[in-house]
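User: Second chain of the day. Same drill as before.
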Amino acid sequence: MFIDAGDREAVDREITGLREWSPLGLVVAVAYGGLSAEDRLYLAKSPVDQLSVTALREALSALGAGVRVLDPTAPGFVAHLAGPGVDVVLPNLHGPFGEDGRLQGLLDYLRVPYCGSGVPACAVAADKILCKEYMRGLGVPTPDWREWAATDQILDWRGPVMVKPPLGGSSVGMSLVDDPDDVARALAEAAETDPSPAPRVLVEEVIAGTPVTVGLLELPGGVLVFPPLATEVAGGQWYDAEIKLDAAGEGMVTVSAADLPATTVTALTAHARTLWERLGCRGMARVDFMVDGDGHAFGLEVNPTPGMSAVSNFATGAELCGISHADTVRAVLHEAITRRTYDVPLSPDPLLITR
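Assistant: Same format as last time:
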C-alpha cells in the first residue's frame, strides 16, 4: 500500500499511529565512519553540525533511545554489532561494504535487526549500472549508457557524457566530460574510487534539465511517497561533490518542492513506486531523476541509505509531509523492530571461529 503525500488525512493518521510506538529504552547502534570515499569526504570537510550522525544522535536522544556510534574502520566493529546491549542497527554508511548489501548480509547472519533495505535491494540499488539495467527492464526511462572496464581501450568520443563510478555517491569520482581530451582522465578518476578487483565505470548520456529526487518512507500502514524535490545549483556547471558538500555554507544549492506539470509528477511518483516495490526496498529510500525541458523524467539511481542530516533531501521531503526528523527516525526504527526475523537456528556464538 502506498500513501499519497497529498492525502493529509491519511498522513496525519499514520503519524498519529506511529507515535503510539516508542523506542524508549532501545539501544540503537549507528554504523557510521570513513569506510567509503564518500563518507571520508564528509568526515574530512563537513562541519560536525551538518553530519548525518549528529542529526541521528539528536533524534534518537529525543526519542528516548540509547545511542552507540560504531565505526566500521575501528577494531572490534563486528563483535560490537553482535555483542550484548545492541537492540537494532541504524546503518548510515554509503558505498561499498556499507550500502551495497554486504553489511546487511552480515547483520542478517548475526540475526541483528537493522533499519533499511535488505541484501537484494541494496545490492541492486547501490550499483548504478545494475540499477539502470533493472530500470530498463521495469520500463523506467533512464539515460543511455555504456560500461567501461579498466582493461578496455579508451572509449570512442560520444560526448557530452557523465562519467561515474558505479558504487558510491555524492558525485565522488564523477565528471561531466565535454572535451575528448578529458575522457582518459575522467575514466581513471572514476576507476580509482572503485575498491573492487576489477573496477568498472559508468559512462552515461547527459540529460539537460533539473535534478529531482523522490523520497519514500515506510510507515505502519504503508509507504509514504514524498513530493518531488527539485535541486537548483548556483555557481557550478553541475551538481558535483564540492557543491553537494557546501562545507563553507555558501548556499550554492537550493532544494524545494518541484514546480512540475501534473503529468510529470505522476510519472515520477509511479517510477519511484515501481522501483521500491520491484527492488524490494524497506524502511526508506530515495530515487534520483533528471527531468528534461519537456517534462520527461529519467531515472538515475536509487539510494537505499539516503543521507539523514537535518537538511538532507530526505529530511526536507519528510518535512513537506509534516514529518519531523525525529519521527522519520522513529518510522525506520519501527519497521526494523517489527520486521519478521529469520527463524533458522544460529550458533550460540556466531563469532567463534574454530580450526
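The chain has a mean pLDDT of 89.

User: Great, on to the next one.
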